[in-house]
Amino acid sequence: MANMAEMPEGYAGEGFFATSLSKAVGLARANSLWPLPFATSCCGIEFMATMGSNYDLARFGMERLSFSPRQSDLLMVMGTISKKMGPVLKQVYTQMAEPKWVIAVGACASSGGIFDTYSVLQGIDKVIPVDVYVPGCPPRPEQIIDGIMKIQELVKNEPLRRRYSPEYQHLLEKYQIS
Ligand code: SF4
Questions:
Q1: In which order are the strands placed within the sheet that holds 74-78?
Q2: Is residue 126 one of the residues assigned to a domain?
Q3: Which of 58, 88, 139, 164 is least surrounded by CB atoms within 10 angstroms?
Q4: Which amino acids bring their CB within 6 angstroms of ligand 1?
Q5: CATH number, residue 115
Q6: pTM, to two decimals
Q7: Which of ligand 1's atoms lies nearest the C-alpha of 138?
Q8: Is residue 150 part of a domain?
Q9: Rounded distance, CA 91 to CA 86, Å?
Q10: Residue 143 falls inside a structural domain
């Protein structure tokens, strides 16, 4: 069953509600995330189960998946990422418009998982910044949903100016992203 989004902090009275712009924007962003699933292996199958009727990601009312980076703001990386795939992943990330967030779903995306080999990227945070890591090999759909809810918390509480801050610019510079 779909739930109403929680009201942000503010002042409510008879026929009115007032809050800060930052909280109103955070509420809107957190409840209108458009994920881009970047699925390369088994964790992607677990994500398909998360989308199915049993776990029903649609309960958030924001499960509109986008395979176009320009129309999405949540990059979900699911599966083993080889070193050759790293630049492709980075290109997808840079094509996404700000503000954008990233979830590394599963052990492979988070750390290379069991594939401690010459050809596998030992975590996508070697090439792009990550906001939430979901553990597991594979993580269960509940864990993927938990990861999305953690992203929602981050999005809700992100200051409006964060993307212009020197700290954020420094983070991007570290990844050589302009
Ligand atoms: S973490 Fe496990 S289930 Fe997920 S892609 Fe890697 S090997 Fe497959």
A1: 35-39, 74-78, 101-105, 132-134
A2: yes
A3: 164
A4: 41-43, 79-80, 106-108, 113, 137-138
A5: 3.40.50.12280
A6: 0.92
A7: 3
A8: yes
A9: 9
A10: yes
